[in-house]
Write a structure and sequence with these properties.
- Two copies of one chain form a homodimer.
- In chain A, about 40% of the residues lie in helices and about 25% in strands.
- By secondary structure, chain A is an alpha/beta fold.
- Chain A has two domains: about 110 residues, Urease, subunit C, domain 1 (Roll), CATH 2.30.40; about 290 residues, Metal-dependent hydrolases (TIM Barrel, Alpha-Beta Barrel), CATH 3.20.20.140.
- In chain A, the strands form three sheets. In chain A, strands 1, 2, 3, 4, 5, 14, 15, 16 and 17 form a nine-stranded mixed beta sheet that branches.
- In chain A, strand 11, helix 8 and strand 12 form a beta-alpha-beta unit.
- In chain A, helix 2 packs parallel to helix 3.
- The longest helix of chain A is centred in the N-terminal third of the chain and has 17 residues.
- Chain A is globular, with a radius of gyration of 21 Å.
- The first copy, chain A, starts with a strand and ends with a helix.
- At the A-B interface, helix 2, helix 9, helix 11, helix 13 and helix 14 of A face helix 2, helix 9, helix 11, helix 13 and helix 14 of B.
């Protein structure tokens, strides 16, 4: 099966940032067979005319919680929202069917917005993985482990068991790459963390966790160990190349140096961090140290949209201001983070993140027919400052055409209706908890 | 002619923030005849079913330059971009037909994104006004006056003449409110500024100008007068209720106190300010002083999109971080700034900015059928964090249904094609200037 995408402005996002102004790209089964400016018409089954569109690698979302769609726009501004609102509501109301439908919805939201690979830590992960398989998104998924009762485990030990079982179940999947996800540095002790790392090393998976995100987390490590969370992870031998550290808002030069030496990756979530007034992570410095960084939308509870175009624009504005430098982060560099940067952070850049012969066919078409995407002088600037999820017209994951002319194979409306029914009790409980705050 | 909009979630944005969950609104000619929760079906010519949509006042864009669509995405990151790139290119290439087509495009971009009133300072203002009338957007427009040769005037004196002629020509227009627009505090001397203010006072118009935006502007006033730009305006008797001050990024407590005493309004442009690394204006403090503040997109050259949903989201993230307070600016307060706040800043709140009986029928329907606008728990949060321009389905200005089911009366595509032809030389000149930098 060979598909030709022709006449689009191809941004390969490879190491040389090669572009083809009226380019041609051939998909053969699940791989890219050709990308360049030569016309290829032999043995083509389907031709897609991408005239006027940008053709680029699918974006990589390095941090989200797909099960949290029902929480979107509830209690946005509640101080200490995680502990006072999200944890109690999750414990009371989250269940396997809600997690499944929410994840299915989130996967479609991401696909329709040009995200072809996502990274998720949540609960009921078999159901989350099923949602990803059914919708056709590539996903790195890990069961959350936390030292408290959760919606799917009595304690962290049960969480560890679920996590390892999940890894063994899904380790040979086409789209799913399993991993493990201890919740955060301050919600698990060193013993639990070390056990999670042992599982990650034994199965050679990534380990993702929230790091240096919260003021109270920073205070806890300072007061208890006279360390930063990053230093603490290193002290318990859990800082290594398996780690995908989400947030890292409060990291100093010593932390960054350690993270570089230990080959840690970062999932940077600009929208969710700023919405919670947690600050702006020093991404320019992370990149100067050579630390791989990708963008994360965070959950719909936190960032409210899974649209990585929003993350790109917010990132540009935030970093330029943080460092008071208008020339910092030209748009091209930001599109790189959203694609190849994310792939590197997930250790998947051998397969995805750029349009190169032999790589997986994870490809999106961004249609530039909306008001703010004209004139198309500079496609990178258009992507960062002018476009949004609604501009994505076509999406391929693993060679499968999962979004065609803005419609996903599984209709969003159907999932939405099912989710709306399922979340009735959830909404009532949310209102009750919010009223009590 | 009576139109009924029924079943929508009506956010009136009046002083009491009244809402109607399944509300009814009747438009009679150019006015709102009824808003409430009683079913009204007598003498209705047209019924619009707004089920699933948010019905709200059209948004107010308090600062833009409609003629600058061709500049979008050119030289985004060039330091000192205004003087090194924008001014030379404007002088060389801007002309009346380019300004007209660009303004027409910009007006459609705003209408399609739910902006029903805009504020513009540029050149060839008769042509800009014509573009607004033809597309059907309400507009406050002023000829730019600056002490250098421009694309439509040899010097500031000719600019003043053009400005006054523009006011007299358009003062009795249905949609256009003329004003005057000396460019900035540091690009006109006190004499020119005073003459512009004299014209504004004699014709009782607003006067808009860029204030406290640039580092070199701040340094100039400090070094030359030992004053801030706001203090300088006051010292030349030009700080009064006619002033709509754009940006005001670098204002101190004394400035704010002065601005409040003199009844000055502010056009806050969060996206353009941050994109140029100019900082985040202290809007919370402005509002604490009681200074009216509205949002501005700034020109497509600076903010890259005229989408005020982007301004709302960016504003939320920026202010919460500037003041390190997650609870600051709940979404409802931000929607207020985008509607009634903007109307107050323009002294038009007697006529627009909220849905109230007797006010002008400037109304938008925001359809919540896109992925990130579900669940619709809190419509304000959805508007600020989940929606974008593409969610706007219907727009009324002055009772005229100018956007119907996402299509404007004048087709965007037609204007785009004409503009594309017209801007050919412009693009070549832009490339030449950028290459020389």
């Amino acid at each position: 099966m060979r598909t030709l995408i022709e006449n689009g402005w191809i941004l390969t996002m490879d190491e040389d940032m090669q572009e083809y102004r009226k380019g041609h790209l051939v998909i053969e089964d699940d791989r890219i067979a050709y990308v360049g400016d030569v016309t290829v018409h032999e043995d083509i089954d389907t031709i897609i005319d991408a005239d006027g569109a940008i053709v680029m690698p699918g974006m990589v979302n390095t941090h989200t919680h797909m099960g949290m769609i029902p929480y979107r726009s509830l209690g946005d501004d509640v101080p200490d929202r995680l502990r006072r609102f999200l944890f109690p509501l999750e414990l009371e109301c989250m269940n396997d069917s809600l997690a499944y439908l929410s994840s299915k919805y989130a996967a479609l939201e991401m696909l329709l917005g040009g995200v072809t690979t996502c990274t998720d830590m949540y609960y009921f992960m078999d159901r989350v993985a099923l949602a990803c398989e059914e919708t056709g998104i590539r996903a790195l998924l890990g069961e959350t482990i936390i030292q408290q009762e959760t919606c799917d485990a009595m304690d962290a030990n049960e969480g560890l068991q679920l996590a390892e079982r999940f890894i063994t179940t899904w380790k040979n999947s086409r789209l799913i790459t399993p991993m493990i996800a201890p919740h955060a540095t301050n919600t698990n002790d060193g013993n639990i963390f070390a056990q999670a790392m042992e599982i990650a090393m034994r199965h050679d998976t990534m380990l993702t966790t929230h790091v240096a995100e919260m003021d109270y987390e920073m205070a806890y490590f300072r007061d208890t160990y006279d360390m930063t969370p990053v230093e603490w992870l290193d002290s318990i031998h859990c800082l290594n190349e398996h780690i995908l550290a989400a947030h890292c808002i409060q990291v100093n030069d010593n932390d960054l140096s350690l993270m570089k030496r230990r080959n840690v990756s970062v999932a940077h979530c600009p929208v969710s961090n700023m919405k919670a007034a947690k600050g702006i992570a020093p991404v320019r410095d992370m990149e100067r140290y050579g630390i791989p960084v990708g963008f994360g939308s965070d959950g719909a509870s936190s960032g409210n949209t899974l649209d990585l175009f929003v993350s790109m624009r917010t990132f540009a504005l935030a970093q330029k201001n943080r460092y008071q430098d208008r020339a910092l982060y030209p748009a091209k560099e930001i599109v790189r983070i959203a694609t190849l940067g994310g792939a590197k952070a997930l250790h998947l850049d051998h397969a995805i993140g750029s349009l190169e012969k032999g790589k997986k066919a994870d490809i999106i078409l961004v249609n530039c027919d909306s008001p703010s995407t004209f004139p198309l002088h500079d496609p990178y600037s258009t992507l960062v400052y002018g476009a949004n999820a609604a501009n994505v017209s076509d999406v391929f994951v693993d060679g499968v055409h999962v979004v065609q002319q803005r419609r996903s194979r599984i209709q969003l409306r159907d999932v939405r209706e099912a989710l709306e029914v399922e979340m009735h009790d959830f909404y009532e409980a949310a209102q009750r908890i919010l009223t009590g705050l």
